[in-house]
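Exercise 3.2. Students should predict the tertiary structure of the chain below and write it as structure tokens, then compare their answer with the key that follows.

Predict this chain's 3D structure.
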Amino acid sequence: MSTRGGGTVVQRFGRRLAGTVERWMPSPFLFAILLSYVVFLGGVLLEGEGPAAMVGHWYGGFWALLTFGMQMVLILVTGYAIAYHPRVQNLIGRLAGVTDSGAGAVVLVGVVAMVASWIQWGMGLIVGAVLAREVGRQAYQRGVKVHYPLLCIAGYMGLGLTWHWGLAGSAPLLINTPDNVFIEQGVLDGLVPISQTVFSSYSLTLTVLAIVYASLVLYLLAPDPENAEGIDEYVDEAELEDSADASGPDIDTPADAVDQSRLVGGLIAFAGVAFSVWTFANEGLNALNLNVVNFAFMFVGLLLFTRPRAYQEQFYDAVTATGGIILQFPFYAGIIGMMNGSGLTETLANALVSVATPTTFPAIAWITAGFINLFVPSGGGEWTVVGPTVVAAAQELGVPVGKATVAYAVGDAHTNLFQPFWALPLLGITGMRARDIFGYGMAMLLLLIPFLALALTFVPY
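Answer key:
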């Protein structure tokens, strides 16, 4: 991390925080292990659970989110595959060259990541990461000074702000999924359509305002050229040269011809996309739920690649990029098990929502989600545990369930700027360590607080 001085107050704030985080932040997997110890001690000391009981809760939760975990991995993998399609890559390459300003490059990456993540967070995460690396690479080749750590955080801003208000947001989709936990527990009498969450004027207004505000903050954080650290200070220069592979598919046998057949892949892809379109045509956008989103994006990806083998190979690459998430997801599920089994989650949620009024409830829901997300970085996973308490409190105060869900959703996204779990694929693509970039993530987290507190409270539903 550079120790060079100068710059505005905001620039110096970001640089100093980045230096502190680079020195002290543990690796993402160690982060998960340390949080497991914290929650274990919390259950023993605050809830009076015995150590053996806490270990039992940990094991009981370890495998509790396998279905949901697979849904999350599929969202990420299908988004990854689409982001790495050659046409999408060409578009990313063209976007990367539209600005010659370091601050402008950071804003460009941030806006694209936030918009793409609203559409589908897995795609947004990968597009943001690939765009950050490509912008950094092209800036290096053209001699433009762009601060690469901030550029990478800009690529992560979709996960840190807009994704949970979007089409693949776990909490809004979960309460619109048949037989969900809220209905099973009697908290809700029926589904909450996304017209009351994702497509409400409240959510859409917040999304637009958030993108504008975050873009301004990114611009202000961008260091002056003399303080900017380019991609060449973090990535081997040999990896920054142009490369191209113009070779076509190898077809040596009849089996190869079938594997590479556009007809074979195209027919089933078209059927999947057509069924998705038919579903939305008959049920409208309220048909959106996690299974529908995954189904649609899986076949959109296949329709783009068409050749089964090409899509399969891209899927394999995507699964490799999600290895860290697959490893850590059970650990966070175990944390959920300890928090839920010991009563910690309910205690924390009740303590926060008990001080809420109808006016302050959205801000309280945001804070609740943000705090719990530090320990359980799974929007849907934590929503299944904390959501019933939040929804019941909202109903008691007369706050619309859709509004409460939207407010909660951004809290879950917001503290991703501190919690490195979902950044693992981005770190792999950009060639960075968590501690290289998360100082700027924490700077964005802190600078977003005044905006979110005011917007959640005063934007009308």
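Discussion points: DSSP finds 22 helices and no strands in the chain. The CA atoms of residues 118 and 162 lie 6 Å apart.
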